[in-house]
Amino acid sequence: MGMPETMRAVRIAEHGGPEVLEVTEVAVPTPQAGEVLVQVSAVALNNTDLWTREGAYGRPGDPEALSGWRGPVDFPRVQGADVAGRVVAVGGDVDQCLVGRRVVVDPAIYDAEGPDANPVGLMGSERDGGYAEYVTASAERVHDVTTSPLADDQLATLPTAYGTALGMIERGRLREGETVLVSGASGGVGLALVQIARARGARVLAVSSESKIDAVREAGAHDVVDRARNVAEQIRAAAPDGIDVALDVVAGDLLSEGLPLLREGGRWVIAGALGGYTVTFDVRRLYLHNAQVIGSAMHTPKHFDLLMNLARQGRSSPLSPRRSPWIRPLRRRTNSPAGRTWERSSCTHSASGVVPYRRLGERRWWHC
């Protein structure tokens, strides 16, 4: 059967609420030289998608500016950063052997070639993403996971949340036996941080709301701090010798109050500013104690390679996602798996093991 000429996609023509999402018929993209065409089997819904749609990222120096992940969005835009699917066509200079392979797409757009390149754009924000039946991607950014025991919907939860988490852990140089603090631990990135840090042999101290403490413990945290009480005091009680690494998606007061809790040579890694992006602290906490504050925007190609190796082995085991009801029009009458869209939780975990989705409203992070 030949390739269809058109496909259904969900795109936005302006910033706004869910009402700006439009299910429409568009041309199936043609892979250019160095690209592949992926038939989408699962795509996750992330905070990055919500905030890109809302224009809620802002910009340094102008936090209220309407912006996608890295600047103004070129409308109309097909959203969707996290894609799992199968390669169905390739462009010039791409190995035909990729056709038919099950893949996960690295959503990052990098500033250079090489394993340590920096992400400067995101699929679904700076280029069209996976809220469609087909999407093109660089052949270098599709990872063959044909042998992975994980289902497609599980694989689709990995790129943004687990990629961001692994990038933070790698940049923070977390080692076995160290004590690590994880803020926002009940969110998608936070749960991934807890799982990966625990798997690496760290002692995990997490910050969460009281209602989600059990879920965070289930993910692997040794101790959980209630964010509604005095956080710094609770951290001191749980880790009287201090913490080696902080993996932080909150910033704000937590950063200024938490820096004194770092041990000598400690590292504070930031990938979000849920608690506020303007922070005041005493710089002597850094240079007198060889401490570091490290910014972390998603992952590098090397970090993503590590994540995909875990996925192939089934060692990255995200909590089970559930299907999104609003995207069902993407599924054709043939009941093709293409266009099946899934939600990744950014908050809670139910007793059944299904992760319910909850919209986070106007909360903002920087490039997370």
User: Cα distance, first to last residue?
Assistant: 40 Å
Strand order of the largest sheet: 13-12-11-14-15-16
- Which bin fits the share of residues in helices? 10-25%
The arrangement of helices and strands along the chain is: EEEHEEEEEEEHHEHEHEHEHEHEHEE
- Please tally the β strands and state the result: 18
Strand content: 15-25%
- How confident is the prediction overall: mean pLDDT? 88
CATH topology grouping of the largest domain: Quinone Oxidoreductase, Chain A, domain 1
The quaternary state of the protein chains shown equals single chain
What do these coordinates show?
- The protein has helices spanning 47-54, 152-156, 158-171, 188-199, 213-219, 231-238, 253-258, 284-287, 301-313, and strands at 6-12, 22-27, 35-44, 77-78, 82-90, 102-105, 108-110, 119-122, 134-138, 142-144, 179-182, 203-208, 223-226, 243-248, 262-270, 292-295, 322-323, 342-343.
- It is α/β, with parallel strands linked by helices.
- It has two domains: 6-161 and 299-343, Alpha-Beta Complex (Quinone Oxidoreductase, Chain A, domain 1); 173-295, NAD(P)-binding Rossmann-like Domain (Rossmann fold, 3-Layer(aba) Sandwich).
- The radius of gyration is 20 Å and the shape is globular.
- The two termini are 40 Å apart.
- The model is unreliable at 324-368 (pLDDT under 50).
Descriptors for this entry?
24% strand; five-stranded antiparallel beta sheet; 2 domains; single chain; six-stranded parallel beta sheet; Rossmann fold; Quinone Oxidoreductase, Chain A, domain 1; 21% helix; globular; cytoplasm; oxidoreductase activity; alpha/beta; RNA-binding; 368 residues
